[in-house]
Amino acid sequence: MNHDDLHFWSRRAADWTRDYHAGLRDRPVRARTRPGDTAARLPATAPEAPEPIETIFADFETLVPDAMTHWQHPRFFAYFPANAAPASILAEQLTAAMAAQAMLWQTSPAATEIEQVMMRWLRDALGLAGHFTGTIHDSATTATLCAVLTMRERALGWRGLEAGLSGQARLRLYASRETHSSVDKAARLSGIGQDNLVKVATDPDDAQLSMDPQALDAAIRADKAAGLTPAGVILCVGGTSVGAIDRIRDCIAIARAHDLYTHVDAAWAGSAMICPEFRALWDGVDGADSIVFNPHKWLGAQFDCAVQFLANPAEQVRTLGLRPDYLQTLDQDEVTNFNEWTVPLGRRFRALKLWFLLRAYGLEGLRARIRNHVAWSRELADDIAALPGFEITTAPVLSLFTFRWHDDARTRDLLARINDDGRIYLTQTSHAGRFVIRLQVGQFDCTRDDVRCVLEVLKDLTRD
Length: 464
What we know:
Layout: H1 3-22, H2 37-40, H3 53-63, H4 86-98, H5 109-125, E1 133-137, H6 140-155, H7 160-163, E2 171-176, H8 181-189, E3 197-200, H9 213-225, E4 229-236, H10 248-257, E5 261-265, E6 290-293, H11 295-298, E7 306-310, H12 313-320, H13 351-385, E8 390-397, E9 400-405, H14 408-421, E10 427-431, E11 434-440, H15 448-462
Parallel strand pairs: 2-3, 2-4, 4-5, 5-6
Antiparallel strand pairs: 1-7, 6-7, 8-9, 9-11, 10-11
Helix pairs in contact: 4-13, 5-13, 6-8, 6-12, 9-10, 13-15, 14-15
């Protein structure tokens, strides 16, 4: 295959893409395959001779789409979405064509400088203070790991980088019980350890399941008294399970009083902050040292695209930066090399899709989508609550809520039947010791009718 062939088949792929998206509502949302089905249809070894691209493309059409769960389906209400607005898809095609390695300014000057400008555009769009700057990671998991590594080194006076952790002070991290498992992973991978991640109690009187600031303060004081070394606090805005939201201002005040680094995980809910009316949910966030949100979750950007804002990037660069001779930028004044802000050396040109996205839809267009999702979710929750045997177990937080039907056994059975039905896709979580169904509206192209389909499915499957 050469570039002339690529020209033809790129047009064919664009046609396939259009038809695929146009026909998504006619497909079951979740794949109807069993483990091993797809692998069994593939040859055991790679071909020795070239195969025609016609054959390869035909095999793709035959094997792949029906064996995929369709994340761009407008009735995908499971997990948080991984959006792919058409403008973002176009930008990713161009990124793939250039295949740039954007690790340094000199290897991709436009990639670096567009990323810098996009960070300012997004910072202002979210209403954050002007002292924040930022970078793009692959996922919030990586951003959180970077923040935790910075907490570690800051608490150790940057001794861990050279001397390792053996013989160093035993460090402690603090997060609520509602934070994402990426926080646990960061504690493990940073060498701090799972046992040193303190899950602080949430306030029982707070409907948003916020970390209790007084419990946080007590945990830090107890660790200090025991000779341990507090390193940092991880807060959440829009927890993955039921949308828990920590009292950001109060918890940051506690962290500041103990001189602790703070990281705010707003991976999903952060996108909603382009709407000024939702910013009260993270009141006080300008006091954070690090914030992460994923434009790929709710803003329309193609996966992967996680933005980390930093109040003082020098601390993270000091932790993660490493510049051997072969990565020096010669004959230039100091430039930003974003590989020093994160774990991998290699970096994709992720800023291009943000540039296309923000221009193609505008902030008002994106705000309208998010506002619709929130309104449709709240309307749906009210209607589900009126159905016989149904209970809203956690009220909508933005566009996320949970519900159950009668008891755990029947709720579990109902979820299985919902997903086997194929018209919509939902997932489960556990809340207050009960099995509940979790629903989040956020797919880029979904409509009110798509959301209303949930009510239709629930009525159909519980009519008897």
